[in-house]
Amino acid sequence: MEDNNRNLILATVLSFLVILVWYTVFAPEPVSDQPSGVPLAEQSIGDQPLTPATGTTAPADLAEAPPAGEPVGRVAIQSPALSGSISLAGGRIDDLLLTRYQETLDEGSPDVRLLSPSSATADDSVNINVTRPYYAVYGWTPGPGVDAALVPNPATVWTLESGDTLAPGQPVTLAWDNGAGQIFRRTFALDENYLFTIGQSLQNDGDAAFSAAPYGIIARHGRPDTQNFFVLHEGVVGMHDGTLIEMKYDRIAELDPIEREGRAQVFEVSGNGWIGFTDKYWMTSLAPAPGQAFTAVVKYADGADIYQTEARFPMQTVQPGTQLSADSYLFAGAKVWEVIRSYEETPGIQRFVDSIDWGWFFFLTKPIFQLLHWLHGIIGNMGWAIIALTFVLKTLVFPLARKSYISMAKMKELQPQMEEIKARTGDDRMKFQKEVMELYKREKVNPAAGCLPILLQIPIFFSLYKVIFVTIELRHAPWFGWIQDLSAPDPSSLLNLYGLLPFGVPAQGTLLHSLTLPALAIALGLSMWFQQKLNPAPTDPAQKMIFAWMPWIFMFMLGGFASGLVLYWITNNVITILQQYTIMTMHGARPDLLGNVKSSIPVRKRPGDKPGKRGAGK
Hints:
It is found in: Cell inner membrane; Cell membrane. Interacts with the Sec translocase complex via SecD. Specifically interacts with transmembrane segments of nascent integral membrane proteins during membrane integration. Helix content is 32%, strand content 23%. By secondary structure, it is α+β, with helices and mostly antiparallel strands. Helix 6 crosses helix 13 (563-586). The longest helix is centred in the first third of the chain and has 24 residues, at 2-25.
C-alpha cells in the first residue's frame, strides 16, 4: 500500500505541477495599449507590380479619400445574423454587427461589432468610435498601358444601380462608369448566416482592349485588443493548397521587407485557399471561388500600423464589346462549427473548419468537441452535455481504469506480506526493494498501474480546456442557477455569501477571485478529498502532509478556470470514486471510506481519555 500511495502522490504532484506551469506560462499578458490606428488617408498598400512573372499586380494606392464636402451614401445590410451597411465610398463593407451575439450577458448589452469604418467613410448613420477601422474593400488594378484613373480605387464613390437593402435573397449592385467606355459593377449577395458573395464585373464598351486585375483586401488599422494567450491563435489565418497559414500580429509586424511591397509574405495558391483575420470567436476571411488560382498576401504597413490580407487575381484583358467577371466570397461573422463546416460543402471552401484553433492536440480536441456538440443537440443544455461527455470519456478509458483498480486491490491484499518483508529486512532498503519487486512479479502486480488513469486525464483535460476556451458554442452557454456562462469562471464568492449579501466581489477569472472560494471550486476540493479517502492515509509524514493539502491547493488553483472545465473535473472525480469503490469491493478489498474519513479528522484528547480511543473516554 505504501508503493500505491507513492504512485498516487507522484501522479497528483505531476498534475499539480502541470497546472502550475499552465498558470505561469499561459497567463494572459496585459492588453496592448499601442495606438489604435490612423485615418485611412494616411495608409498605402503599394502601387507597383508584385513580380512580372506572376501575372498579378499589387492593388492601387488606398491613400485617396472621398471628395471633401460630398455626402457619401450607404446601403443597409439586414439578415437574421447580421446588420450594418456598405459604404458607397469604395463600395466597402465596413459596418457590421453580429446580431446573434452580445458583448456581455447584461440585459441591453450591445451586439458584437465586427467591422468598423474609417474616419474617411464614417457618417452620422454609423455612430461609433472609428479609431480602429476594420473593413473589407474590393477593386481593380490597371493593366499595362491603362491609366490608374480609369479603374475604381478604394475611395471611388459608387452608384447604387439595383436593390436597396442587402438581405438573404435580395442582392444589391453598385456601378461606376469611368467615362472612357468601361463600366464596373460590384454585386453583393448574402446568405442566412455570414457568407457574402462578391461579384465584380468589367464591361468594355470602348474601342480598344482593356486590361485589369481584380482584388480583395481586408484591412485592420492597429493591433486589436487580443487576449494574448499562448494557447490561442489570434491574427492571420488561411489555407494555402491544403497547408494551414497562421501568423500572430507580432510576427506580421516583423515580416521581411519585399521590394515594392513592404513587410509582406506572399503565397501563390494554385486553386484552393482562403486568407483573413481571426479573433477568438470571430473571423473575416477572403475566399476565392474553389479552383480559382490567386495570390494571397499578408502585409504590414510600418508607418501607418495597418495589418492587411489580400487576394489578388490574375490580370485579364477584356476585348471591346465583351465583359469579364470575377466572383469570390467574404466570410464575416462567428466561427460557428456547423456553419463553417457547411461552407466546406457549399461553396466548397477547403478545410474551412480549421479556422477554429484546435491546437496541438487537434486529434483529441476535434472529436471531443464533435461529441460534446452531438450531446448538446440531444440534451439541449451545455452543462448537462459536459456531464454526459464525462461519462462517455470515463467509459472509453474504463478498461484501463479497471486494471488499475484491480491492481490497487491486489496491492492491498499483499500488504501483510509486505509488512513481513519489511520486518525481515529491517533497515536494508536494497534488500527490501528487491524482495518486494520479486513479490510483485510473483503475484503479477504492476505497482505503476495506479498512475495510468490519472496521467491519461492530463491530455483529455487540456483538450477539453481548449474546446471550452476557443469554441463559440460554449460562449455564454448556461448550465443552471448562477452558472450562465460555462466558458467563464464561476462568478460566485464566499465574500458575499454566494449572492445573499449585496456586496461586490473581485473580477471573475482573477487569482483574487479564486481565493474567495467559488462554489464549484469548493465542490472540486471536496470531491478530490473524498477520492483520497478511498485509501488509508500514508504512514510517511511527508506523504501524509502532501495528501492533506493537495485537494485544497487544487481547489484554489482551479477556481479561476472556466466553470465548464471545473464541472468536468468534479464529475470525473465522482465517477472515479464510484468506479474504484465498486471494483475494489468486487475483488475483496472494499475501501474503508468512512473509517479513512474519521481517521483523517484530528481529535483533541482530553484528560481521562484511554490510549487508542477517539473522543471522550469517560
